[in-house]
Fold this protein.
Amino acid sequence: MNEEKALEIINLLEKEYPNAKCELNYNTPFQLLVATVLSAQTTDKKVNSVTENLFIEYPDLDSFLTLSREDLEEKIKSIGLYRSKSKNIMNMCIALKEKFNGKVPSEFDKLVTLSGVGRKTANVVISNAFNQPAIAVDTHVFRVSNRIGLAQADDVLKTELQLQKAIPKEYWSLAHHLLIWHGRRICKARKPNCPNCTIKYECKYYIKLKAYKP
């Protein structure tokens, strides 16, 4: 998809979702990093319900370092994959203290060296905590961008690279949030609400679907 068409879609989505933003609750880069690690294969709503009290009791890196892995498991056990996430978060905290002077790095290449931090998590953090252009490809961004034709890829890395090429850099972070909001509210995995979609006439999925209907 060319840049002009990509911007047209972004503008339509921005009118539909003028308040689109990260839906994880956090106050600091460290809290966002923890919340994003917790959010893998789990809804933001579930993560927020857990971190509401967790971040009151343990608001920063030093307080997290007082926790044992078993303590953290107990506090986040309502979240999927809580054992592996507890292990990754505790190892991540140790690395932040020992390698990064207790601060969350703002560089992508440094973030992805941390336990439990992949491309998606690193992009979420640099975009939202450090205000750098980034496109984090989660399940919603992957699904929506490939359905509507912003990307045409079979994995998240190719999707991210194609979105970076199609969308001007200054719009990357905005596009990321808009695609997530659209995926959660309209363009759902099993039953997309195509009749109420603001970009259906720009969407390859809808156009193909309409063509096959009698």
User: Anything to note?
Assistant: The longest helix spans residues 82-99.
